[in-house]
Amino acid sequence: MRMRRATRITVMTMTMIMRMAIIMTTITIAMIITSMTSIADTTTIITTTHMLMTTNEPPRASDAMTGAEAAALYRLMTFLSPAFPVGAFSYSSGIEWAVEASDITDAASLRDWLSAMLVDGSGFCDAVFVAQAHRAMNLDDMAALRELAELAAAFVPSRERQLETTTQGKAFIEITRAAWNCNGLDDAVAQCDTIIYPIAVGLVSAAHGIPLASALHAFLHALVSNWISAGSRLIPLGQTDSQRVLAALEGVVAATAARALDASLDDLGSATFRADLAGLQHETQYTRLFRS
Predict the structure, then answer these.
(1) Handedness of CA 34, 35, 40, 45 (dihedral sign)
(2) Would you tell me how many other CB atoms lie within 10 Å of the CB of residue 174?
(3) Half-sphere exposure (CA, 13 Å, Cβ side) for 230?
(4) What is the pLDDT of residues 57-72, one digit of tens each?
C-alpha cells in the first residue's frame, strides 16, 4: 500500500511539473510574440517616418514662377480687379430693365440670363475682341488693330452700352498709361480713334506680356462678376446666392474663353435679342440706379 501511495504521489508531482512547464512555455511564447510585435511596430513607425521625410520635400526650383511670369500675373490681377477704377460698378448692361420687367427675379433666372449673355451674346463677342486685339498687338500690326477697334465700336447695339464700353475703355487706357505704362502702348493707343473696353484689355495685356488665355479667362470672370454684382443689388440677392451664381457659371466662362481663343472675326454674332432690347429700354426707364 505504501508503494501505491508513493507511486500516486509521484504521478501527481510529475503532472504538476508538466502543467507548470506548459504554463511557462505559453508565457514565454507570448512574451516572444509581444516582443516581435513591438519590433514590427517600431519598424513600421521608422519606415513611415522615413517615407514622410522623403516625400515631404521642399518645392522644386521648377515650381517657382520666373520674374516675368510673376509680373504678368500681378498686373493681370490688378487690371481686372474690381478695385481697378474703370467705373464698372455704375453699369448693369441692361440687367436693371430685365429685373423691372420680371425677366430676372431670383438667382436661377439671373444665372440663366448671364449664361445666355456669355455664350450667345456680348460676353462671347467681347472675348473675341480681346483675343484679336491681343494678337494684333503681339504682331505689331497697327493697321489691323485700328480696323478692329472701329469694328468693335460699331458692334455695340445701344447708345447706353456704347457709353458703358467706351467710358470704361478710356478709363482703362488712361489709368494704365499713368501708372503702368510700357513700351509700345502709347503708339498703339494713338492708332485708334475709339477704344472700347475689350479692345483696351486686349492690347494692354499684350503690351505687358500677359498670356492671352489667362487674359481671356480673367476678363470674362471680371465681366460676369460685375453683372452678378448688379443683379445682387437689383433683385436683390444675398452674398451666398451671388457666389452660388458665380460658381454655377464657372464652366460657362471657361468654355466661352476657349471658344473665343479659337474664333475669328467671322465667328462674331449675337442671338440675345431680349438682352439687347433690355439695353435699349433702359434708356427710357423712369427710375434707374445704373447708367446702362
Answers:
(1) positive
(2) 14
(3) 29
(4) 665 656 789 999 999 9
Evaluate if pTM is beyond 0.85. Answer: no
Residues 219-269: tens digit of each pLDDT? 999 999 999 999 999 999 999 999 999 999 999 999 999 999 999 999 999
pLDDT at residue 57, as a whole number: 62
In this structure, what are the phi and psi dihedrals at residue 12, rounded to the nearest 5 degrees?
Answer: -65, -40
Note the pLDDT tens digit of each residue in 173-208. Answer: 999 999 999 999 999 999 999 999 999 999 999 999
To which residue does cell 444665372 refer?
111
Q: Name the CA dihedral angle for 56, 60, 66, 70, rounded to a multiple of 10 degrees.
A: 0
Type of residue numbered 241? D
